[in-house]
Amino acid sequence: MRWQDDYKKKLVSAAEAAKAVKSGDMVVIPYRTNTRVIPQAIADRKNELRDVSIMVGSPRIDPAIFAGAKESFNVIVPDEVNATVGNFVPSLFSLSFKALDEKREGAYRDVDVAVVAVSPPDKDGVCCFGHSLFHQKGYAKRAKKVLAEVNRKLIRTGGDSSIHVSEIDYFVEHDTPVAEVSGKGDHFPEFDSAKAISGYIETIVKDGDIISLGAGVAVETLPHLGCFDKKHDLGYWAGGSRYGVIKLAKAGIMTGKYNNLFPGKIIASGFYGDEEDIAYMDNNPLFAVYGYEYVNNPVVCAQINNFVAINSVAAIDLTGQWTVGVTNTYGAYFPVGGVLSKGGCSILATPSTSKGGTVSRIVTRFGPGAAVTLPAAFGDYVVTEYGIAKLFGKSLKQRAQELIAVAHPNFRADLKKEAEKLYP
After folding, report:
1. How far apart are CA 410 and CA 397, in angstroms?
2. For residue 182, is pLDDT > 60?
3. What's the pLDDT tens digit per position in 232-245?
4. Distance, CA of 320 to CA of 335 (rounded, Å)
5. 409 CB neighbour count, 10 Å cutoff
6. What is the DSSP letter of 182?
7. What mean pLDDT is predicted for residues 58-86?
8. Could you give the CA distance from residue 202 to residue 17 in angstroms, rounded to a whole number?
């Protein structure tokens, strides 16, 4: 059968596509999937369905459309920000499919239906996930049924971001905006330490480094503060590109020239930018999109020479172990890759205090129940508005001295007293 005939046969209304969902099914709407009408059509079947699990990752639709029908839908939000401590599953994005692929007893459930967003097919019948891939292809490959919203506004990107018409069960044509403005500079609240932190990080980053930017104000503001403007031939490799990365590519600052795995490529699972930025990416060979399970794998990151992972922290103790949240474990992969990379490093960027200057982010020890995102062995650079603490290869006593020197002056005396007791 010609792919054109196959596509026409599978082209249906959202209501028709939603009939693929049966009672008892597991339905996955992958992380940051730009789908609208199919999820709503599934929700509209609440009176017909029972015990359907809906896993929704950072959705573009409001999960509340499934609310009020507990017998019909069990909504799962695999996001530590939205999860309770008891229900959170510690994991890494790179391990998302391990339990499913290996059929780990009690740790997986088959995916019955995946809902994804794709571009219209090209002349060969190949659709593209556009600039926002993340887990979409991974789930599409593993689900028993794949429902796709076909969006003419989705661009075409290189990498591993394509899927053939034959691999999708139902198509629903529906166009929605695709611009991503997460991390846009003027969306961030101003904080006095930002420029100082940016200035210190600028001294660590070298020409030709492969940069990875994590989430959080202290990191996401860096492209807007000129941290990288004087650098040459930087590369990029991260789950999300952060707003401003595409603009650095336009300016010729980020070229990916020295990426030993993908020379001349800028890599992410999803790119953030305004409409002009996204249009610039369309069929642009400079950009390549790969799944979360690959890009976020610390084993892969460690193979990239001069890989520099820049991340935010909620708190760090005097040993150098740190946390980014009560339950979070997702933030560990890039810093691990940075420390293991030949010529690479990990940079933790944070204001010295929180809660209006009343709480020090540098603490003596973590309290009971605190989740350690990464152990002390991976402690490297820590940057606050007061300077750079260099932890790698240093003793606990030396680490404590380094960290106290970049703590807020109001807390240094107490930290020093505690450190002298611990490390006389």
Report:
1. 21
2. no
3. 999 999 998 988 99
4. 13
5. 8
6. T
7. 72
8. 51
Long-range contacts of 69-78, Cβ-Cβ distance < 8 Å, separation of 24 or more: 69/43, 72/45, 72/46, 72/47, 73/43, 73/46, 73/49
Helices (H), 257-329: 275-281, 292-295, 298-301
Query: For residue 147, which of 292, 28, 66 has the smallest C-alpha distance?
Result: 28
Residue 101 CB: number of other CB atoms within 10 A?
A: 12
pTM score above 0.85: yes
CA distance 342 to 305: 5
Fold matches, 3-173 and 185-422? yes
Instruction: Give how far Cα 167 sits from Cα of 84, 109, 127, 141, 292, Å.
Output: 36, 21, 10, 8, 20
Q: With the CA atoms of 218, 355, 405 and 375 taken in that order, what torsion angle do they form, in degrees rounded to the nearest 10?
A: -70
Fold of domain 185-422: Glutaconate Coenzyme A-transferase (3.40.1080)
Residue 159 β-bridge partners: 289
Rounded CA gap, 27 and 271, in Å?
25
- Partnered with residue 236 across adjacent β-strands are 211
At residue 286, the pLDDT reads: 98
Beta-carbon contacts of residue 373 (< 8 Å; ≥ 6 apart): 313, 322, 323, 324, 325, 328, 329, 331, 332
> Please, what's the b/e burial string for 182-192 (b: 16 or more CB within 10 A of its CB; e: otherwise)?
bbbeeeeeeee
Domain map of the chain by residue range? 3-173, 185-422
Closest to 181 (Cα-Cα) out of 311, 278, 286: 278
Place of tokens 């429902």: 147
CA distances from 380 to 24, 288, 338, 346, 402 (A): 47, 29, 9, 6, 11
337, two tokens = 């890759």
- Domain 3-173 falls in which CATH fold? Glutaconate Coenzyme A-transferase (3.40.1080)
SS3 at position 170: strand
Q: Are 292 and 135 in contact (CB under 8 A)?
A: yes
13 vs 197: CA distance, rounded Å: 51
Asked if the model's pLDDT at residue 318 lies above 70, the reply is yes
Which of the pair, 176 or 62, is modelled with greater confidence? 176
Which of 75 and 136 is assigned the larger pLDDT? 136
CA contacts within 13 A on the Cβ side of 37? 16
